[in-house]
Inverse folding.
């Protein structure tokens, strides 16, 4: 049996209509024998399990099915990490897919690499267009960097990440279960432990968007905003309770937290429903009380006016959005 170079964790929940495209894209890889594909069925009520089982039968040494009760995206990552056997680890949603040629190039690189974190651009695929997302900013491709060189970053999309499995496991933290937006936790944990990073040019991940039921739609964001707030609270506490020996890493994680916190205010400025405004007010008051210096260091920009009067501040910002 070939050495497994890349474990791919696939979260599958009621994806019978799209999981075939996802798995077919992986099965078209020339170096499929180097893949460790772990499909985690998260309590689907459709035919997802039957479809995945047919692929397991065709590729028994490559595709593994974990069938479990529903626990959310985080639970699928936690489950796959227990059985992952690849040198590197990547997360893929069951309604997304990969470019097989680009994945082959990534596998060739990973097999001979010792870098902790490998970053690839990815495509955002909408119903009527595709957007290429480059994440290297001002850094060069195929150049080895350290965590100290990422000072310009405030986030790194999960879709772009392949992380060395042994390095990631050093964080010794589980992803939150029964929660949306756990990609923020995953990225935070990755950046907490990696030392070296490289940016490649191959566009591997194909990220499906424009679906009304997605958690990243405006309706989805409003519906699940409590989950995002819970993730933020957990990460603020983790950041505050951690002793950092590397000031560059500390600054990087602070910028990540800061950007995700400002994103919460941006989302609220676009909500038309005001029923959950109290949640924003509660978390802002709570974090300012628990971590006053940390919150003081976050520049909210225009959103800072909310703290003069939360109710009228939200009204003012929403009016500005509509002008």
């Amino acid at each position: 049996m070939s050495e497994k170079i890349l474990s791919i964790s696939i979260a599958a929940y009621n994806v019978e209509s799209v999981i075939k495209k996802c798995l077919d894209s992986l099965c078209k890889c020339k170096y499929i024998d180097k893949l460790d594909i772990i499909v985690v069925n998260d309590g689907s009520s459709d035919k997802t399990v039957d479809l995945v089982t047919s692929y397991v039968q065709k590729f028994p040494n490559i595709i593994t099915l974990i069938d479990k009760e529903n626990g959310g995206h985080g639970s699928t990552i936690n489950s796959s990490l227990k059985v992952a056997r690849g040198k590197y680890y990547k997360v893929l949603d069951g309604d997304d897919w990969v470019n097989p040629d680009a994945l082959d190039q990534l596998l060739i690189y990973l097999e001979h690499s010792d870098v902790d974190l490998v970053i690839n651009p990815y495509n955002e695929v909408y119903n009527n267009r595709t957007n290429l997302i480059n994440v290297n900013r001002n850094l060069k491709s195929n150049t080895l960097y350290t965590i100290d060189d990422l000072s310009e970053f405030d986030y790194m999309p999960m879709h772009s990440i392949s992380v060395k499995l042994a390095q990631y496991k050093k964080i010794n933290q589980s992803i939150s279960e029964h929660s949306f937006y756990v990609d923020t936790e995953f990225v935070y944990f990755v950046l907490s432990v990696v030392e070296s990073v490289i940016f490649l040019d191959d566009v591997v991940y194909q990220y499906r968007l424009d679906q009304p039921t997605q958690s990243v739609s405006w309706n989805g964001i409003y519906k699940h905003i409590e989950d995002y707030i819970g993730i933020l609270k957990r990460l603020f506490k983790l950041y505050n309770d951690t002793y950092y020996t590397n000031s560059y890493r500390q600054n990087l994680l602070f910028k990540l937290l800061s950007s995700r916190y400002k994103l919460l205010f941006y989302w609220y400025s676009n909500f038309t429903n005001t029923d959950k405004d109290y949640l924003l007010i509660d978390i802002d008051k709570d974090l300012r009380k628990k971590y006053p210096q940390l919150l003081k260091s976050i520049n909210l920009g225009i959103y800072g006016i909310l703290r003069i009067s939360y109710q009228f501040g939200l009204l003012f910002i929403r009016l500005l959005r509509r002008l």
User: Anything to note?
Assistant: The first helix runs from residue 19 to 27.
